[in-house]
Amino acid sequence: VQLQASGGGLVQAGGSLRLSCVVHGSILSINYMEWYRQVPGKERELVATSHSGGVTGYADFVKGRFTISRDDDKRVVYLQMTGLEPEDAAEYYCFANGYYGDRREPREFRSWGRGTQVTVSS
User: Fold this and answer.
1) What is the mean pLDDT of the chain?
2) Of 17, 94, 111, 113, whose CB is crowded by the most CB atoms within 10 A?
3) How, if at all, do strands 2-6 and 107-112 pair?
4) Which pLDDT tens digit goes with each residue over 44-65?
5) How buried is 117 (Cβ within 10 angstroms: 0-12 exposed, 13-18 middle, 19+ buried)?
6) Bridge partners (DSSP) listed for residue 46
């Protein structure tokens, strides 16, 4: 199972970006799809989470500005970011967990995508 993230870039403060992450593989089901971010010298932190049951959650520092959504048919999770601030600059990573392989013997996966860099100029 591989995750491919895209959509990062350079944006001015107050601007918007939409990140995408596609899950590749013989996927049977996806439970959690999440976005994290990390800046050099700091731990990776959870930004937003989406459960297959429709529940979403956000870190306090992005509430009201970021929106996570998913398309399970396309196996894609999005992160719509608005009102970007210089403090939001980071490498953004997607994470997903679920099951793949043969339905008679499904295997669990917990996979990370490569990061996509978000830079916010003041």
Assistant:
1) 97
2) 94
3) unpaired
4) 999 999 999 999 999 999 989 9
5) exposed
6) 36
